[in-house]
Each structure stands twice: as C-alpha cells, then as structure tokens.
Description:
This protein is α+β, with helices and mostly antiparallel strands. The protein is built from 4 helices and 16 strands. The chain has helices spanning about 5-65, 85-90, 150-160, 255-265; strands spanning about 75-80, 90-95, 95-105, 115-120, 125, 140, 145-150, 165, 185, 190-195, 220-230, 235-240, 265-270, 280-285, 290-295, 300. The chain has a 7-stranded antiparallel sheet with strand order 1-3-4-7-15-14-9. A hairpin with a 2-residue loop joins strand 11 (about 220-230) and strand 12 (about 235-240). The termini are far apart.
Amino acid sequence: MSRFAVNKASGGGRQRVSRRRHGHRHRGRRILGVGIVGVIVVALVLLLADTVAAMRTEHDFSRALLASPRVTYEPEVTISGFPFLTHARTGDFGGAVITARGVAVDCQSAAGCRAELGATMGRWSAPNGFDIESSDLLHTASVDAYTRLDSVNLGRMLGILDLTVNTPAPEDKAGGGGPGDGLLQRTSGVLLTGTVPLPPILAGTRRPPSASAYPGPKVKVSVTVDLSVVDGRLRISATDFYRGPEEHVDADVADDLRGYVLSRFTATLPPMPLPWQTTPTEAHSEGSDVLLTGKRGAADLVPSDF
C-alpha cells in the first residue's frame, strides 16, 4: 500500500473521530440547554403559584377587614414574606400593610367627612395562613396606625370649603421637596390656604361656608398652623399669616380682624378612629394631607375590629 493511501485512510479516521466528538458535544449542549429551560420553567411555575397564593390570602384578609362596621370599601392589603407558601404553611408572616379608604368620620358638614385609615403590622401570625377569617385572632409584634385627612375633608371639618394644605420645605434645605427628599412632613409651619367670611356674619347663617357660596364679605388668606394631639384629638393652631416663599395668597387683613381670621383656622377636631383602637399620639402633615398617628407594641387583633 502506498504512503498516499495510508495517509488517506488515517485522515478519514481522524475525521470520523472528530465528527463523533462534535456530536457528543452537541448532544451535551442540547441536554444542558433543555435542563436550564426546565429549571426556568419550574421556577416560573413555583413563582406563579406563590404569587397566586399570596393574592388569594391578601384578598381573604381584605374581606375579613371589610367585616368591620366602620370600613365601607374593601381595603388594600399587602402581606410580606417570601416565599409566601412557606410562611402560609406555618401561619407566620413578616408583616402586612393595610389601607382602608373612604372611612366615615364625625364632622359638622352636611356633605359628611371621610378619612383613610391605615396600619403597618410587624411580624404576625394567624391560625390559618391560607384562609383568614373576620373573627380570627391575629398575634402581631407591633402596629403603626394612622388616620389621614385630605384637604377637602379637613376643610369640611374647619368650615373652609376651598381649603388647601401644603407642607413647605425646610427653610435651610435648598431644593427641598425634590424627588430625593420623598414626601415632606411637618408638625409646625404647615401652610393652609382658604377663604373665610368676615364679620358681621349674615343673619340666618349658622356656620357660613367659605368661597363663592357665601354672599357676604370674605377674604382668602394663607396661614401657618401647628399640629398636635390633645386628649387624643387632632389640634390645629394657627400661628400667623404666611408670606412665602411657597406659593400662597397675599391679602390685607385689618388689624382688628386678624385674630378672628386666624381663629377660623384653629380648632380641636372631633375624635377620629385609628385602626384597632390605637391611641393617637402624634400629628403631622404629609404633602397635602394631615395625619393622626399612633403606635402599639405586641397585640392580639381581630380583623372585624379594624
């Protein structure tokens, strides 16, 4: 056999071995790819099942809270703890955030007043993590509760129907109120703007409305107020007329009427409920809202008592 034939045969063998090795590598890559895809699919299915279970329990918790006589609309509930299924099996969760809007509160306005009630629960447990009932006894490490009044409802309570609330940025903070600062909060120097009637009040008007509905003399002003809690009630105390730098209304008020006008922005509001009878201890503004807040330590809670 010639050298050429031997080399030819040897070259063909190497090609066959190379093709076999290439085939093995290709099959190996394909098996690995299928395995990775399978793992991803299983992970997505587990994540979907976990999410669906969380949504179902959050809905059950929301319906349980709706059993409270003061709750009108189904609250929003977010339960923390991942993976949810693991926490639900033991009935032990990392926390929960509850927001109930449109809750009726006492006021003298014929239109009625409504507030937002909310609570943040610390670590808590339930008898059945998959099905929370209105009568269940929930054990929690802590509760941060609040009642929020927007400008409209606060105005109804004060009898100032065009009231607006603003939380000015601190005077020594350049660019205060930007996205990096979050929602500004204050307990003093809160800016209120609204129209109040001037004396003498027209006969037959028990509590005159502000703005265009009142036919007598009136004035629109901006004032600063302090917020506090007195005997569990929200106290609003006007301190002075506001002159800037935030957007405001400038108005000339006669010296003998300044005290009267400020008094229209001063009041101790009727008692307002906090979730689970939490005692209010602090008050502050937050953007264009005013909040009454309170905290509790470890407690046993029943959803229908919210």
